[in-house]
Write a structure and sequence with these properties.
- The chain is mainly α.
- The chain has a single domain (2-252), classed as MetI-like fold (Orthogonal Bundle).
- Helices cover 83% and strands 0% of the residues.
- It has ten helices and no strands.
- It has helices at residues 2-25, 31-67, 72-86, 90-111, 115-118, 124-149, 153-161, 166-196, 208-219, 222-252.
- Helix 8 packs antiparallel against helix 10 (222-252).
- The longest helix is centred in the first third of the chain and has 37 residues, at 31-67.
């Protein structure tokens, strides 16, 4: 049954890829022109997703450890961060980082007479990455926390009895085991982040979605444009899902 499921998923991915390639290689209008127009947006989408996800993994690790901290201040700050961020839609957060955060920096510059801050202008790509990391870091913190708590406390105690510090025990004993446990939800978060990266189009990042909207506003063919954009996202998400599944099987061994 497991073998049959693997074949089915690969056939689904192959079917979508063949359909996309057929529409473009055959230079069937307007799909070939759409691909040429949004090709730079594909690279932007991949860069935003991969950069954000790598930073989310780091932020989530520290956030998860902070959520397990016995220090009341660290625990309180991390808990407040997780609860507040999870209660605000990602789109609203992205808009805040791009439109409101620069004004905050400028006001600080005026208050403390810092000319470089007064003239600060938001970088769309940087603000998009910060917004994604800030939001997904909260969700990833909970994934790490759950993964660490799933490891028996005896593992930490055994590592400490061997003379390891708390951080050494986390790095060499607990986290390697926790990563195997959290790999499925982490993979799901990557796929969700890839799809949610389309929201950065509202903050002037020229990703696939924004480039598709620009093409549609010029040629007025929404059916062809958004069907093809959907196919491009589907190819990327299905391919990512297969890679995540391969990594999961390797970690299980």
């Amino acid at each position: 049954m497991a073998w049959y499921k693997k074949i089915t998923w690969w056939w689904l991915l192959a079917t979508v890829i063949i359909l996309t390639v057929f529409l473009t290689v055959a230079k069937s209008d307007p799909f070939w022109r759409i691909l040429r127009f949004v090709s730079d947006g594909i690279l932007v989408t991949v860069m935003v997703t991969t950069t954000s996800f790598l930073l989310v993994l780091i932020a989530g690790m520290f956030g998860g450890m902070a959520r397990l901290s016995k220090n009341k201040f660290i625990y309180g700050v991390s808990t407040l961060y997780v609860e507040l961020v999870r209660g605000i839609p990602l789109l609203v957060q992205l808009i805040w980082w791009y439109f409101a955060f620069p004004i905050v920096i400028q006001q600080i510059g005026r208050r403390f007479n810092m000319p470089s801050f007064v003239s600060y202008q938001a970088n769309a790509y940087l603000m998009a990455v910060i917004g994604l990391v800030f939001c997904y870091g909260a969700y990833m913190s909970e994934i790490y926390r759950a993964g660490i708590q799933s490891i028996s406390k005896g593992q930490m105690e055994a590592a400490r009895s061997l003379g390891m510090s708390y951080f050494q025990a986390m790095r060499y004993v607990v986290l390697p085991q926790a990563i195997r446990v959290i790999m499925p939800p982490v993979g799901n978060e990557f796929i969700a982040l890839l799809k949610d990266s389309s929201l950065v189009s509202v903050v002037a990042v020229a990703d696939i979605t924004r480039r598709g909207r620009e093409y549609m506003s010029t040629h007025f063919n929404p059916i062809e444009v958004w069907t093809f954009i959907a196919l491009l996202y589907l190819v990327m998400t299905l391919f990512s899902a297969r890679i995540v599944a391969i990594i999961e099987r390797k970690l299980e061994r």
